Amino acid sequence: MAKTSSIIKNNKRAALAKQFAAKRAALKAKTKDASIPMDERFAAQLKLAELPRNSAKVRVRNRCEVSGRPRGFYRKLKMSRIALRQLGNLGQIPGLVKSSW
Question: I want to staple 80 with a disulfide (CB 3.0 to 4.6 A). Which of 37, 42, 64, 88 is the partner?
Fold first, then answer.
């Protein structure tokens, strides 16, 4: 199990990223638009820099929903490989069968 503080910190980052997503996307589009004058693009870049760092989507870490483990994460299942194996062995994941050959 991951530290509770790490999980909470990551959840706060995810909430901030969701909150500022539209504003961030608009400013980024403005900075990349070549038809806008250079000084306006620069002003948009400065406004983008003023936003909280944790509001960037890239700072959110994918964590297992079961254990909070940050590594060995399967995006499709939102679960780490270890939690997947444990729940699969207990028969709690439909369609997952232990393989043998």
Answer: 64
